[in-house]
Amino acid sequence: MNKIKIAVVIGTRPEAIKMAPVVKALENSEHLAPIVVATGQHREMLDQVFDIFSIEPDFDLNVMRPNQTLPALTARLITSLDECIGQIQPAAILVQGDTTSVLAASMVAFYHRIPIGHVEAGLRTGDMDNPFPEEMNRVLAGRLARWHFAPTVSSRNNLLIEGVAPDSIYVSGNTVIDALFDARRHPAKVPYQRSDKRRLMLVTTHRRENFGAPLGDICAAIIRLLEANPYLDILFPVHRNPNVSAPVREALGNHPRVTLCEPLDYLSFIAGMEAADLILSDSGGVQEEAPALGKPVLVLREETERPEAVSFGVAELVGTNPDRIVRAVQKLLSDDSAYRAMARGSSPYGDGKAAARIISVLESAFQKIPESEVLAPL
Ligand code: UD1
Ligand code: UDP
Known about the structure:
- By secondary structure, the protein is an alpha/beta fold.
- The protein folds into 2 domains: 195 residues, Glycogen Phosphorylase B (Rossmann fold), CATH 3.40.50.2000; 144 residues, 3-Layer(aba) Sandwich (Rossmann fold), CATH 3.40.50.2000.
- It contains 15 helices and 13 strands.
- The strands form 2 sheets. Strands 3-2-1-4-5-6-7 form a 7-stranded parallel β-sheet, sandwiched between helices. A 6-stranded parallel β-sheet has the order 10-9-8-11-12-13, with helices on both faces.
- α1 links the parallel β1 and β2.
- α3 crosses α4.
- The protein is globular, with a radius of gyration of 20 Å.
- The two termini are 32 Å apart.
- Bound molecules: uridine-diphosphate-N-acetylglucosamine (UD1) and uridine-5'-diphosphate.
- Uridine-5'-diphosphate binds next to α1, α10 and α11.
């Protein structure tokens, strides 16, 4: 039987992690088949995830250039995706999140009149400058999507406020929890030797809003924390964007208690989160994973499109002001009850069944299963 072709477009590391469960669910579908299109917006960091989840892209557009600009990246993506989607002629295109690959794939799908499913739909800060350019990317993808797979009720509400038709929104949970549950079953090594007397803080950063002075402030806060706490170690897998790696290596590269490393493969990074006492990060995915692992996460941003973890009390916005970062970390290191309150291990982002819900919606849309068999929302 010929299966219905669903193109799954994947550009960067977090898209690959969050789409891996969707690709697997499509592979297991009786009626639908994935055609994986790697745009290659990321290169090494994307390939790392494909290796871990044993995904072999059907197409690889290889668009990444060192230190790429957003307009040039967008132009390359649109040209390459146009040709590729024209060749595949899929019945639908799935995109995930808010990267430039998502924006370009959504536009190309629209021009080809192919319906779009947006995975992780409805995340908003309401501020086009924060995060930049992601807020614009997800708003436009949301305007073009036929199916909106909202991870939470609050992301569904954001879409309703924008006038999105209620019957096109499905609360699926976030597929990152599916990926995390799957990946955690595999053993992994972390480049850090844990000992009872020491404390470990895991750090990641890469947001464009934090380039320049804010990144300098984050590094200054880390140095102050190391000086104030001789038992504190830092594990910092450094993003490959040169706007991040150069200043971070310059500021922290020589400190004996800072382990700077290349981006960790997903399994090792999870092991790193598990080994850590607390996490300092501006990453979207890490804000979702840390609460599921019971690790307090201090978010290096002024606002977040993931307010659930903050309202649950398991994440805190600390921005990039060094005094504020130092205060928040110091409290967690010294106040046991404050620490335990943030380390409860409860996740507002999903139950590990998001991909199955998404696939059941598509199977129903293509009349392969009755609407009554669509899996219940999270
Ligand atoms: C991108 C996304 C961001 C996402 C992040 C996840 C956009 C505009 N930004 O940001 O939303 O949160 O990925 O990490 O879509 N590089 C490498 N190898 C890699 C990856 C990146 O060398 O595997 C370097 C290259 O010099 C590249 C630069 O990083 O030009 C920037 O990559 P890009 O995808 O444009 O932006 P990110 O900051 O990675
Ligand atoms: N991650 C990883 N290795 C690392 C750092 C992060 O595998 O060295 C994973 C992390 O677990 C999360 C995802 O990458 O699932 C987040 O990616 P990133 O922070 O680059 O992007 P964002 O989520 O902010 O878009």
